[in-house]
């Protein structure tokens, strides 16, 4: 069998040699193409196929994007990467003008000074009580000589009284009336600067209301000339402690009596009304 095949192959070659149109070069080239390719050639051929496929894929993506944006490269670019220009579907572009926002300047007005407590005189730097004609050392020495220092007035309070220009004579007057040991330098300073006489403190004590009032109440009632009798009636009726000096002063000036407050309390309205409501009701019902 092998001899038969070999005979056929040899016969085929002999036939080609006898062919007058036989071209040996062409025959050898054809035989070389039929041989198995090398590994390097196979890798190169695969790379070529990959590049062709990648290029085809990219082309399809670009074509899809352009088709989606009406075949406008500018619009496609703006859609993917952004742009300072707005692109119309017609392919025309226009630049968006800059918007200048003007924020007005806000002028904050100056905070007005805090008003003083009604009826209480406040001494500024230019209107302080007269400066004492003695030094601080002499002032402390005088208080110590009279037995006030450390017993009724601390060294700290004494320095504050000196800076507020409170004379030793006023402290002697308070001590003789029995108030010096019970008053702080704040009370003493306000009583002196607002010219509260010791006799007024005596009247409050006699009415049984001195210990229930702060120096602000005392000073206001004295300045507004609220009668001691009116304060005593409010205290006896149980209203003085619960009411501020503003309420008391306005009730007195409007003529509101403790009896009227009792009527409001009986009707259950007292706790629900402001002092302005109370004054308005009183004046309406009393023809004022």
Molecular structure report:
This protein has 288 residues and is mainly α. Helices cover 56% and strands 2% of the residues. The protein is built from 14 helices and two strands. A two-stranded antiparallel sheet has the order 1-2. Strand 1 and strand 2 form a beta hairpin. Helix 5 packs across helix 6 and helix 12 runs parallel beside helix 14. The longest helix is centred in the N-terminal third of the chain and has 30 residues.
Topology:
Blueprint: H1 2-18, H2 24-33, H3 39-68, H4 73-81, E1 85-87, E2 93-95, H5 136-145, H6 155-163, H7 168-176, H8 185-193, H9 198-206, H10 215-223, H11 228-236, H12 245-254, H13 258-267, H14 275-285
Antiparallel strand pairs: 1-2
Give the tally of β-strands: 2
Helix content: 55-70%
- Shape assignment: elongated
How would a crystallographer describe the biggest sheet? 2 strands, antiparallel
Strand content: under 5%
Instruction: Give the helices and strands as they follow along the chain.
Output: HHHHEEHHHHHHHHHH
Give the uncertain stretches in residue-range form.
1-14, 85-89, 99-127
Distance between the ends: 150 Å
Average the pLDDT over all residues and give the rounded result: 75
Task: Strand order, main sheet: write it out.
Answer: 1-2
Question: What structural category do the secondary elements indicate?
Answer: mainly alpha
Radius of gyration: 56 Å
Number of helices: 14
List keywords for this structure.
288 residues, mainly alpha, two-stranded antiparallel ribbon, 14 helices, elongated, disordered N terminus
